[in-house]
Amino acid sequence: MRKKMPYLLALAVVVFYGLHQDFWFWRQADPLILGFIPIGLFYHALYSIAVAGLMWLLVRYCWPVHLEEASESSEPPLPTRSEKPTPS
Known about the structure:
This protein is mostly helical. The protein has helices at residues 5-20, 39-62, 65-73, and strands at 32-33, 37-38. The chain is elongated.
């Protein structure tokens, strides 16, 4: 399952991209959710929560850990011109 996860998440990104183009609520404000929230705004609020969950999954399963390990084992970078040298 671990090997399939990046492909499933890539498919989910494509699906979410398609769902973001919500042309079905463009010209419609009814029904009002909870009596005051237009349906398009409510849709985007739920969409934003779902995308945040997708981003969590992407970081959890597709983050390039080998790059972090390489940067942690390397030497610290040399100071740049903007950094003032410490007096010895």
